[in-house]
């Protein structure tokens, strides 16, 4: 497995809990040095390279929250398809501009994003390069869903600011967030935080 644009390497360590071998790739020298020093193990290694240029023998590629920074997303998806081979799989995620951008705005204003995607645009991009596209949305669940409800319906932001509870509350709340406080779902992705594409180079076999 390769984790392209792996950043500081924490995700590679998480992936290695189930993957036989993980290679983390990042071009940033500081991120690469940190990842190699902190997370290198028997099953995790790191290479400094541009994600568009990396080649290796893997059957799975992970490329998270980065394609919005890529000037040639079509070329990058072709590259991912070549990396994983005909029987592999690629997991590619990006923010959903419908929830990232301010209400009524077309873009988030992030100067580092070359392009931001709506669900239908992202699906169309993926389907140009992969015969099998399973598009899911990442949503708040459990504690985060309750927190979102409190902000949107109960005015929680105003309450904790007025009562000076902001810092004590988030000092406890933030470390308590876990993977269980997020959910991946298909269907209507309008309110999804992120869009997660599971991409396979081969069409589904009949039967």
Q: In words, what does this structure look like?
A:
Helices cover 34% and strands 21% of the residues. The protein is α/β, with parallel strands linked by helices. It has a single domain (2-139, 184-200), classed as Vaccinia Virus protein VP39 (Rossmann fold), CATH 3.40.50. It has an eight-stranded mixed sheet with strand order 3-2-1-4-5-8-6-7, with helices on both faces. The chain starts with a strand and ends in a 7-residue tail after the last strand.
Helix/strand-derived class? alpha/beta
Tell me what portion of residues adopts beta-strand conformation. 15-25%
CATH topology: Rossmann fold
SSE order: EHEHEEHEHHEHHHEE
N-to-C span: 28 Å
Radius of gyration: 19 Å
The general outline is: globular
CATH architect. name: 3-Layer(aba) Sandwich
* CATH homologous superfamily caption: Vaccinia Virus protein VP39
Number of domain modules: 1
Helical residue percent band: 25-40%
Task: Give the CATH level 1 class.
Answer: Alpha Beta
């Amino acid at each position: 497995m390769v984790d392209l644009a792996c950043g500081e390497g924490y995700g590679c360590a998480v992936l290695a809990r189930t993957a036989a071998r993980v290679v983390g790739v990042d071009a940033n020298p500081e991120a690469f040095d940190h990842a190699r020093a902190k997370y290198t193990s028997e099953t995790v290694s790191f290479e400094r390279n541009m994600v568009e240029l990396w080649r290796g023998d893997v059957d799975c590629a992970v490329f998270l929250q980065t394609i919005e920074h890529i000037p040639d997303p079509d070329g990058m998806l072709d590259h991912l398809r070549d990396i994983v081979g005909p029987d592999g799989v690629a997991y590619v995620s990006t923010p959903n501009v419908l929830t990232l951008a301010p209400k009524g705005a077309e873009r988030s204003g992030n100067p580092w994003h070359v392009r931001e995607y709506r669900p239908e645009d992202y699906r169309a991009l993926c389907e140009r390069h992969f015969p099998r596209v399973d598009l899911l949305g990442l949503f708040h669940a459990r504690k985060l869903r309750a927190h979102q409800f409190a902000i949107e319906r109960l005015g929680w932001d105003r309450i904790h600011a007025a009562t000076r509870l902001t810092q004590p509350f988030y000092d406890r709340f933030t470390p308590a967030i876990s993977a269980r406080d997020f959910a991946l779902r298909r269907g209507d992705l309008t309110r999804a935080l992120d869009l997660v594409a599971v991409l396979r180079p081969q069409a589904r076999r009949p039967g």
